[in-house]
Design a protein that fits this description.
Elements (H helix, E strand, L loop, with lengths): L5 E5 L14 H12 L6 E3 L5 E5 L3 E5 L8 H13 L4 H6 L1 E8 L7 E5 L8 H9 L7 E6 L8 H8 L5 H22 L4
Helix pairs in contact: 1-6, 2-4
């Protein structure tokens, strides 16, 4: 085996109302990552919890179809389907889930690679994922910085993350896909 199989999953909210919101930064990055990795167009995949899927022998990208706060079940279904599609026992053992999500605690455009067991720190999507995956499962998170409003009041934070990105913010998020591409390429080679 020369490459580690990766399922790279993005969290965000589905539908036109949430397209290009800060909370859906993971989806924005994943869509652009497809270009960086020269993968085919996304298609809806019923076996993968009806999420959008783009795959090649080296990488599989998957976009969660669920609302952010309840995305765990869809991620777990997509992961089981992905693992089930691998025929080589060594590939199954080496395979890794990578979850790409928005991160309030980072400035816009910064990324942070974390172990999946790291604290969700109030991120309800990550709480859902961690609660649904098998206990002790080793996976990787890539937090995409979206900044934070000055206020820490929950209503202000919700309003902030659900707002549409400005053109400048959208461009920054799309450019972040290059950094994420470098990280996942290293992971696939076993460097990370």
């Amino acid at each position: 085996m020369s490459i580690r199989p990766l399922l790279i999953a993005s969290l965000g909210n589905p539908g036109p109302a949430y397209t290009n919101t800060l909370h859906s930064a993971g989806h924005v990055v994943l869509i652009r990552l497809r270009d960086w990795l020269t993968l085919p167009p996304f298609i809806k995949s019923r076996p993968h919890a009806s999420g959008l899927l783009s795959s090649s022998p080296d990488f599989t990208l998957w976009q969660s179809p669920s609302l952010m706060n309840v995305s765990g079940k869809s991620v777990a279904t997509a992961w089981r389907t992905f693992i089930g599609s691998l025929s080589d026992p060594e590939e199954k053992k080496a395979a890794r889930l990578v979850v790409v999500h928005d991160e309030l605690e980072l400035p816009i455009g910064k990324i942070k690679v974390m172990d999946g067991t790291a604290s969700a720190r109030g991120h309800n999507g990550m709480k859902s994922v961690k609660a649904t995956l098998p206990a002790g499962m080793n996976f990787t998170r890539i937090g995409i910085g979206i900044g934070r409003p000055v206020s820490r009041e929950s209503m202000d934070v919700a309003k902030y993350v659900l707002r549409k990105m400005t053109e400048k913010e959208l461009k920054v998020m799309q450019d972040v896909a290059g950094q994420v591409s470098a990280v996942v390429r290293e992971m696939a080679r076993g460097v990370r």
